[in-house]
Structures are given as structure tokens and as C-alpha cells.
Design brief:
The protein is an alpha/beta fold. It contains eight helices and 14 strands. The longest helix is centred in the first third of the chain and has 17 residues.
């Protein structure tokens, strides 16, 4: 499978401009013969709590509708971090849209980042999301979720071969970003795809460094810290099987000694 990762710069609160960026990157991925493109966390509103709450859209209207039109028009899967309004609540969510423009899966961020006040503005998701994309099982996480190895392991034990992490990870913790992505890939023998923001929202500067890491921990594609970039990498079920057979971690686990 040929995947693209869009490292983008957003304008806080300017949903129309951010949707135009999403459209441009999706077109580039299609021109690059990609099967799928991944966008960062909260790509529609930018990462600002007040802007998210003010500009969040109900689904399937707004940016999700654009994703569906792009996916069906280009014949490409789209994984994108979006705001989601439901009733009187707002979620930090990810939409997975298939080649026909249908919403194939949906994830709401389970671990809200309390230092940024996410818990004061947003509602918490309450379930894990695993979905089949082009014959591979994908588990979905968002940014801060990456710090919880139990979540990635739970997704893997449920069958995940790819873990995708749309993020708005800040520059001061760039070493954590790179280390945690590699750790989740190595310990779970799964592909890990980190789609991170670049630029800055208010006082928060993001570290970019989007990357695709293979099940052995090899960086298959990576972006620099700054600026917009489109990464393209090949991933395969065969590579997952090869790595898991070479070091049989899941066969050798001592589930009699520890549980999730």
C-alpha cells in the first residue's frame, strides 16, 4: 500500500483556509498514486481550545463532507483529525473515509491533554477504533494517546498492523515524539504513522518531524521540523509478518504474569 502523510500548517479558526490546504495535499497524494493520505490532529480549526469549541462542525457537514467528496472524487482513503460537535459537546476526533467517500471508521481522543486544558473544553472518547484498510488492520490514536503504551498494545492484540497517530506535538518535546513513535513500532512490531503539525498556533510551536516507521523500527520516510511536506512510503502486510516471525514477541508474552 502506498501511503502519504501530510505535514501541514494551519490557520487558527480559519476552517476555509485549512480545508483548502487539505484539498491541495489530497490532490498531490492522488497525483503521486497514493492509496491513502493521513492528516494531523484538528486539521480543520487549528489547535486552540477556544477556536475548536467555536468552529467545530457537526458531522457529516463541514470539513467531513469535503473529505468525503475528495475521497470519492480522487479514489483515495483519507485519515484526518477533525473537530466534531455532537449536541452540547465537542470532541477531538479522527475520521477515516474510504475510496467511495463513506465514513469507514471514527475515533474520539481517549486521553485528553490536561496541561493544555483539553479536559476543560472537550469531551473524552470512550472506545478504541480498529478498521480494515486495503487488507490491513489499522488502529487509531491521537497525539497524547501515544504516551499510553497500553493503548497501542491493546490495539495490536486486537489485530492492528498499522497504528496511525494524527498529532499536534510541540517543539519542546520533539525528542519524546521521535522516541515514542519508534517505541510503539518496535514493541508492537507494527507500522506507526505519525502525522504532525508544523508552524505555530498562538504560543504553541509544533515540531513537525512527521514519519512512517516500519515494524522493525526503521524510519521509512520522515519530514523536517518546519514547513509543509508530503511524505510517501510503501507499507505491506508481508513486512509485518516477517518481523513478527523473526522475533516472536506475541508468542513469548507472559500473560500469566501481567494483564492490561
Amino acid at each position: 500500500m502506498r501511503v502519504a502523510v501530510a505535514q501541514i500548517v494551519c490557520e487558527v479558526g480559519n476552517v476555509a483556509a485549512n480545508c483548502a490546504t487539505i484539498q491541495t495535499m489530497a490532490l498531490r497524494a492522488s497525483e503521486g498514486r497514493c492509496d491513502l493520505i493521513v492528516f494531523p490532529e484538528i486539521s480543520d480549526t487549528g489547535y486552540d481550545m477556544h477556536a475548536i469549541v467555536e468552529k467545530a462542525s457537526t458531522w457529516p457537514s463541514g470539513p467531513l463532507q469535503l473529505l468525503q467528496e475528495l475521497a470519492s472524487g480522487l479514489g483515495i482513503w483519507i485519515v484526518c483529525g477533525l473537530s466534531e460537535r455532537e449536541g452540547d459537546g465537542v470532541y477531538n476526533a479522527v475520521a477515516i473515509v474510504d475510496r467511495k467517500g463513506q465514513l469507514a471508521a471514527h475515533y474520539r481522543k481517549a486521553h485528553l491533554f490536561t496541561p493544555a486544558g483539553e479536559d476543560r473544553f472537550l469531551k473524552r472518547g470512550s472506545s478504541l477504533t480498529l478498521t480494515s484498510i486495503e487488507g490491513m488492520q489499522w488502529g487509531i490514536m491521537i497525539c497524547y494517546d501515544l504516551r499510553f503504551p497500553e493503548m497501542a498494545r491493546s490495539l495490536t492484540l486486537k489485530g492492528a498492523e498499522v497504528i496511525v497517530v494524527p498529532s499536534a506535538w510541540p517543539l519542546p518535546r520533539i525528542n519524546h515524539w521521535c522516541t515514542l513513535l519508534a517505541s510503539r513500532a518496535i514493541e508492537n512490531q507494527s507500522y506507526v504513522i505519525g502525522a504532525n503539525r508544523a508552524g505555530s498556533d498562538g504560543g504553541t510551536e509544533f515540531c513537525g518531524s512527521s514519519r512512517v516507521i516500519d515494524p522493525y523500527g526503521v524510519v521509512a520516510a520522515s519530514a523536517p521540523e518546519a514547513g509543509e511536506h508530503l511524505l510517501i512510503a510503501e507499507i505491506s502486510k508481508t513486512r509485518v509478518t516477517e518481523v513478527r516471525n523473526s522475533i516472536p514477541v506475541f508468542r513469548d508474552r507472559r500473560s500469566d504474569l501481567y494483564t492490561l
